[in-house]
Amino acid sequence: MAKIYVVGIGPGSYENMTQRAQQALAECDVIVGYTVYIDLVKEHFPGKQMLTTPMRREVERCRLAFEEARKGQTVAMICSGDAGIYGMTGVMEELKAEYPGVVLETVPGISAVISGAAILGAPLMHDFAVISLSDLLTPWEKIEKRLDCAAAADFVICLYNPSSHKRKDYLKRACEIVLRHAAPETVCGIARNIGREGEGITVLTLSELKETEVDMFSTVFIGNSQTKNIGGRMVTPRGYTI
Amino acid sequence: MAKIYVVGIGPGSYENMTQRAQQALAECDVIVGYTVYIDLVKEHFPGKQMLTTPMRREVERCRLAFEEARKGQTVAMICSGDAGIYGMTGVMEELKAEYPGVVLETVPGISAVISGAAILGAPLMHDFAVISLSDLLTPWEKIEKRLDCAAAADFVICLYNPSSHKRKDYLKRACEIVLRHAAPETVCGIARNIGREGEGITVLTLSELKETEVDMFSTVFIGNSQTKNIGGRMVTPRGYTI
Hints:
Two copies of one chain form a homodimer. Chain A is α/β, with parallel strands linked by helices. The first copy, chain A, is built from eight helices and 13 strands. Chain A has helices spanning 19-27, 35-41, 58-70, 89-95, 112-120, 140-152, 170-178, 206-210, and strands at residues 2-8, 30-34, 49-53, 75-79, 102-107, 121-122, 128-132, 156-160, 187-192, 200-205, 218-222, 228-230, 233-235.
């Protein structure tokens, strides 16, 4: 039976992969992925066949995986973080009907909302919203509405894709929307290069975040009204009496 | 240096832990946790000292971990899923100042929002909100407001703690709030006993979900306006042209 594992490899380092993900990569015949992610895993699987497609060729990459599986190969399709959060499982599930006999299995991974929170402290002890600021596939008005509603409901907010060359001011715009409901002193955090060289965090206020430029390797957290800065750590109390 | 690893053990099975989590448990002197989670890991670490406290003794459990660390033990404090999502990292970060010299490191794990999505299909290809229906530590009015705002903004919604003995009708009430904004045909999913014996999924409509009772080992997903049921799988399109 032709099989494709859709594998989340986590933030980057091999030890942050689950055992199940490591096994899927070890057992498969061919690993398919975006060039940057292949570079992260290839040293651990010397001699394994690797197929890559560049950025913006996501659907093509998914079809490549199905074509390999149809040839009888066991395929691992890799995504950074988790394949199920803004990843490739969606296209894979949509294409599946075109390739009868191919079985899909998603192997979960550590997404940036989780790995970023782990290095910042404990921002996600309460209800939270995850929003991508990329408007490549989503109208900006929809993103804006989600930011507005999430802030109005006092969610902790985690922002994926907070910046790119073409969207330098999007984080500032996002902060301005959140500031309609949240105090300028709201505690925020930036997690950079999670699990990779150059890993680092900054804990700052929402008004400071508004004036901060981040790069595309950053994940941004905006606290709720209860979030505290405890010694440089971002902590949202769950509500226990300490 | 006294050290505590706060470790997310994932959905249950050993292979769904990251290598880093497995290493932390292997290297520590003592594992601290809620009885049920200790039972999930103890067979893999025979002879290791294990300390447990029952449910509702969370702060006590955290202090136990700090007391052990203060004795010079390396401690692993375990949580199911990820320790950073409604887990113990918050209390640990809040208590840390009382125990100078103890170093905390959070080791991320696969939370139910990720492991549940993986078995349901691809519900989280777009912005999503995670909301706990437990009102033990949160006023119901705040939960209601978050449900209302998340639905108004067309977020995919993931519900933790959708049911308990005392809160049998909370899921129904949550669905009624979402139905103010979402169509009765909105595609929803239930993931049960993720990564454990009895694992299973149901994909159904929001109006069907409203009439369904789930148990406390379930995680519930409510799709956005674009989410589809593709052959019994819950799939939210990211927006790529297929």
